[in-house]
From TrEMBL:
Protein name: 3-ketosteroid reductase
Domain of life the protein comes from: Eukaryota
Alphabetized UniProt keyword annotations: Lipid biosynthesis, Lipid metabolism, NADP, Oxidoreductase, Steroid biosynthesis
Protein family according to the UniProt entry: Belongs to the short-chain dehydrogenases/reductases (SDR) family. ERG27 subfamily.
Species name: Aspergillus mulundensis
Gene Ontology, cellular component aspect: endoplasmic reticulum membrane; lipid droplet; mitochondrial outer membrane
Any one Gene Ontology molecular-function term assigned to this protein's record: 3-beta-hydroxysteroid 3-dehydrogenase (NADP+) activity
């Protein structure tokens, strides 16, 4: 498949990763480089990984760390020369910052083959320690995979996005903006680059990262931002699931088409033609790995890792422990040939299903793989009834999980339609406000 209008770029791959200064985002960048160079099909190709942090200093520090990783992970300088890391800054809770990044990307790069939407915040203020200790001691796998003892603040909102139009601004939830809406705006803004993807892997890819903790039970369509929720993180990840898994359904098509339209005024003079083939949307999660998303004292970090390891030894498929193993799923979704991803989804689609939530999984010995994940209201890949694949049937389930019914699937699809409608209306509202703010301030990169 040719790269549309871009001769000479067929063997160049461009991937954007958000939130890469540490943890999963950093490991995703490392793993992208490692797996790209390990594949023989990439012997004559190059990879550019654009990664975002929240400051220039963090970006430069991360760049040095990634370059050091590259030097130590390969003994072939010519191979290492085929991978380039490029730092960028963005604050996803600042929509003008998102716009500024979008314009820089559209001006600087000829295309994007994949965008890995990793950055985010938990919004937790601590743990309910008595509940945490009891649940981990009595039910370690369930308690460390689907915890119910995290404590979060309710109603956190971002600072004003504009200086001239503050009185017009609707409220914008902090966790919602950091985890979903900032990414949503960024992705729409770089659609021109995603539409120019083609060779070597197929249409551009939008890869949302979710969590095992996403559950429809805490999601309220009347409170899509989770401002009234006591579990805003879990609500935001459920919204991520709903948007991703219903993105190719006929019922969501009007709003998805609007979202996929490359209509953002990037200020770029790059008038290369774009493809009529829209990007593909995929959904992944890192399993359960040790990160700093919940700040803990050092002794408790070691205790957490020990609990995760014990859960894996007892049969949990999702305790990857390390962020490098946690990066398996997003890297697989970003770099695999389109035919491989289509083949992985085929058993579900052949039985009336659709998109799959792909998680990073690990065996007791730490051998990692990408595995389909059961989703409340969507089951395994949207297939009604019991899991269709033997490996799905053999995987440990969340306690209380039941096989998907036609009624539950219909409700999930209905929620997906409403989510897409509300998200597009919110995006258009904010685009109009930001256009007016930039016009009044006279500032436009």
């Amino acid at each position: 498949m040719p790269t549309h209008g871009l001769p000479g770029l067929e063997d160049k791959v461009y991937v954007l990763v958000t939130g890469a200064n540490s943890g999963l985002g950093y490991s995703t960048c490392c793993r992208l480089a490692d797996e790209f160079l390990a594949s023989s099909q990439n012997n004559h190709r190059s990879l550019t990984v654009i990664f975002t942090t929240r400051s220039t200093k963090k970006g430069n520090d991360t760049l040095r760390s990634l370059q050091n990783h590259l030097r130590t992970s390969t003994s072939d300088p010519s191979a290492a020369a085929r991978v380039t890391f490029v730092p960028e800054n963005v604050d996803l809770c600042n929509l003008l910052s998102v716009r500024a990044l979008s314009r820089r990307l559209n001006k600087t790069f000829p295309k994007l083959d994949a965008i890995v939407l990793n950055a985010g915040i938990g919004g937790w203020t601590g743990l309910d320690w008595p509940s945490a200790v009891w649940n981990v001691c009595t039910d370690i796998i369930h308690a460390t995979t689907w915890p119910s003892y995290k404590v979060a603040s309710t109603g956190l909102i971002t600072e004003n996005q504009t200086s001239n139009l503050a009185e017009k601004e609707p409220r914008l939830g902090t966790v919602f903006c950091a985890n979903v809406f900032g990414h949503y705006m960024l992705t729409h803004n770089v659609m021109p680059l995603l539409h120019r993807s083609g060779s070597p892997n197929g249409p551009g890819r939008v890869i949302w990262l979710s969590s095992t903790e996403a559950t429809i039970r805490v999601f309220d369509i009347e409170d899509i931002q989770g401002l009234r929720s006591r579990a805003p993180y879990e609500s935001s990840k459920c919204l991520t699931d709903l948007l991703s898994l219903t993105s190719d359904l006929p019922g969501t098509a009007p709003w998805v088409k609007s979202f996929y339209s490359p209509d953002f005024d990037s200020g770029s003079e790059n008038n290369q033609p774009t493809s009529s083939t829209p990007p593909n949307t995929y959904l992944g999660h890192p399993g359960i790995c040790a990160t700093a998303i919940i700040p803990l004292p050092t002794i408790l970090i070691y205790s957490m890792v020990a609990a995760f390891w014990l859960a894996r030894m007892l049969g949990s498929p999702w305790h990857t422990l390390s962020t490098y193993l946690g990066a398996i799923s997003p890297v697989w979704l970003a770099l695999s040939p389109q035919s491989e991803l289509d083949a992985a989804e085929a058993p579900y689609r052949e039985r009336g299903g659709g998109r799959v939530k792909w998680g990073s999984s690990a065996s007791r010995l730490g051998v990692g793989s990408s595995a389909s994940t059961e989703v409340d209201g969507w089951g395994y890949g949207g297939v009604v009834g019991s899991a269709v694949l033997a490996e799905d049937r053999a995987r440990r389930r969340k306690r209380g999980a039941v096989d998907l019914t036609a009624e539950e699937k219909e409700r999930f699809e209905g929620l997906g339609r409403e989510c897409w409608r509300q998200m597009e209306e919110l995006r258009i509202l904010w685009d109009d406000l930001l256009d007016e703010e930039e016009e009044r301030s006279g500032v436009k990169e």
